[in-house]
Amino acid sequence: MGLGPISVALLLVIVGLIIFLFIKLKDGKNEPVAVAENASLEVSDDTPKSVADKIQEELKESEEPEFEIIEFRTPDVEPEDLPVDEEGYNGESMEIEFPGEQTTAPAETEEPEKTAEPEKTAKPESMEDPETEPTAEPTQKPASKSSDPMSRVIDFTTLQTKKNGHIYAWISVPGTNIDYPVLRHPTDDGYYLYHNLNGSEGYPGCIYTENWNSKDWNDPVTVMYGHDMRSTGTMFHQLHKFETQSFFDKNQYFYVYTPDKTLKYEIFAAYVHSNEHLLANHDFGNKDSFDAFFGTVLAASNNGANHVRDGVTVTSDSKIVTLSTCIKNKPNNRYLIFGVLVN
Length: 343
Known about the structure:
By secondary structure, this protein is α+β, with helices and mostly antiparallel strands. It has a single domain, classed as Sortase (Sortase, Chain: A). It is built from 7 helices and 14 strands. The strands form 3 sheets. Strands 4, 5, 6, 7, 10, 11, 12, 13 and 14 form a 9-stranded mixed sheet that branches. Strands 1-2-3 form a 3-stranded antiparallel sheet, with no helix packed on it. Strands 8-9 form a two-stranded antiparallel sheet.
């Protein structure tokens, strides 16, 4: 029995559909992502079981949750974010109020050269560069002063009760920024070589005297120590201004204030000396020893950093205060400013 026209037409349509689907399927193999994104996966009653199972598997996989990958990192810490110490210092300038005084301390950026640590021996004192970074301590710059240094009053009661009980005097050297409390530790002569006014360990330390001296300023020679803080120009650094002859000539006095009196000293010599411990190696209570030492000082030539003032009387009965600090690149020497009591 032959095929009718309708049957032939239907057959051609089926063959055409097969060819069309074949071409589409062939092209679809090259676009898996597009097929996956655009295909509509549905299961009907006429869908073969094997195809239905595959569709169900694809639907199940497409319903799995997606997870977001989160990257964690340690935040950077800037220096200004670091905690400050209990005194509120974080490396920047700070101000601390003293009784009748206002003070400002710049940040210290380099290591100081330290003063001689006292030793109760006749051996020269050793000198090494400090290995720790200085701890900033404020300089004392009075907010207001009388034009006459002899009439200045220091509130020692408040200083001793609020700041440090070891404060017993005050040193001021006109023409410099040296204007500090003077301390003495009752048992450790070297304590304030390495400790600040608030008791913290480090630099710049304090201006101090030792137990070799009394606290009444009646010894033949009293020695006062301070670091040469070159990076900030503080503590006893500006004693080096006396190395210049013109400055030495114009600045003749320094002052020591105590709770009950003001002492005026005339500067009679600025002198480069060895790093020996003066009080351990010279018996200044002995007239011959006194005369021998200061005879050498007064006979020094006025050149370099050494300067001697003419017309100043110094005898074994004199009361002398010596200001001592270090000299850059000369660890075996000290720079000494000698003043004799004149008031």
